[in-house]
Amino acid sequence: MEQSKDRIIIFDTTLRDGEQSPGATLNVEEKLEVAHALARLGVDVIEAGFPYASPGDFDAVQKVAAAVGTENGPTICGLARATKNDIKTAAEALKPAANGRIHTFIATSDIHLEYKLRKSRAEVLAIAPEMVAYAKSFVNDVEFSPEDAGRSDPEFLYQVLEAAIAAGATTVNIPDTVGYTTPSEFGALIKGIKDNVPNIDQAIISVHGHNDLGLAVANFLEAVKNGARQLECTINGIGERAGNAALEELVMALHVRRQYFNPFFGRPAESTEPLTQVDTKQIYKTSRLVSNLTGMAVQPNKAIVGANAFAHESGIHQDGVLKNKLTYEIMDATSIGLTDNQIVLGKLSGRNAFRTRLKELGFELSENELNKAFIRFKDVADKKKEITDWDIEAIVNDEIRQPPELFRLELVQVSCGDNSCPTATVTIRTPEGEELTDAAIGTGPVDAIYKAINRVAEVPNELIEFSVQSVTGGIDAMGEVTIRLRYDNQVYSGYSANTDIVVASARAYVKALNRLYSSLQEADNKEVVVTN
Ligand code: KIV
Ligand code: ZN
Fold first, then answer.
1. Higher confidence at residue 317 or residue 505?
2. Which of 123, 165, 203, 475, by CA, is between 20 and 30 Å from 419?
3. Contact by Cβ (8 Å): 443, 422
4. Which of 95, 173, 61 is nearest to 128 (CA)?
5. Which one of the ligands is nearest to 149 CA?
6. How open is the CA angle 225-227-231, to the nearest 5 degrees?
7. Which atom, in ligand 1's list, is nearest to the CA of 178?
């Protein structure tokens, strides 16, 4: 990858730091799907995982490297602690990538040195360049991060960075690991690094930050003004604790306000040349994909990608927008890939119109997938007059992005209302092909359904999240349900969309159960292999 200081390098860590959010676990196929979407989005670097952490992580990084790390594709990066085993394993996983990067890190704050690493500053100052040089023996492109840089003594930080660059680091990343700094402090930290690390011109300055105080994006933008040229971020801002800096917010801030940022890149303010290589029209779709696969719903008022981000509710605002959009809109919804034309298809639309619209929305389905999606489309069109792009996308996500169908919901029926006891009956086809019917009562219809399903499936789990959101406005709108279940400290998600939210709730639950059950089966198979 060209290491340009004239624009921003977008380093996406959705598959590494993002996947570390509680419950956002993805399987290898899902990681590959996200990696392809990130490549279409135009990110420069994909941090695909932490290969030494587990065989699953190794496998995912290797597969992403092979499938997405093509000559003209993004650089594929693997994380490694500053140890030989970590680095060697990362190098092995990255081998299939045309452009591979090893990202090695060691903490530099006194608090981490004393309590976590139990090492002195002198030891860390020796380990960092030694491990950078070791990484350099495998790949040319080496990134070094002094973890918890935001709380490190700047004088010590300068020494470690200088040593890492001298040993061959081509990118030095400055993490605000605990989301502690404020924008002006973070900007000053970057400026201090530029002014005090003698060989800093030989490396790109990158930033990485968490959102504990809701300041990650603001911190990054201040860092950009002071010379940072790589931003480490995640789709929808998912990540450890309060998450990472959100890619869509950074990219759109640099896009919408480029006149403000241009001079910091030595460009005339009015230059229209983009500051990142991201295709902003892919943002919305990528956001939805990540939210569906991780089961982490996007809050409606989330900047850029939230359901309300482009909605005007107040009468005064609506009136202004009708007179001239610019009165209350600073960006066009189409710039993130939402279409103006929300009413697209209906009951009379045929297969060809459906296929064409799917193509326009960027979905590439096989003939078999198209058939499945079309049957669902017809079913929804019978119940809902107007099928919007959002509905189509919900249908595809529900119908096509499915975990293996081990348990299959054949029937769900509920009876509820005031003065009655919510009761559900379900029929489930088990993985062994048996059809079982059972009934249960609950505190409400959804609780009753889940109890009935549990009686049949007998897969132990704890329901930790249930959320319903409407796909569009209108009384006939589809509802999308997201479920998260926990078993043995792992979280499994399920998603479904339907005009009947009771049905969507049942289907989402069965999907989450299927994910859980297939991972239990995988674990069993692995045990068999080991004992043999
Ligand atoms: O937050 C952090 O410090 C990290 C590092 C590994 C870069 O994720
Ligand atoms: Zn992090």
1. 505
2. 475
3. yes
4. 173
5. 1
6. 85
7. 1
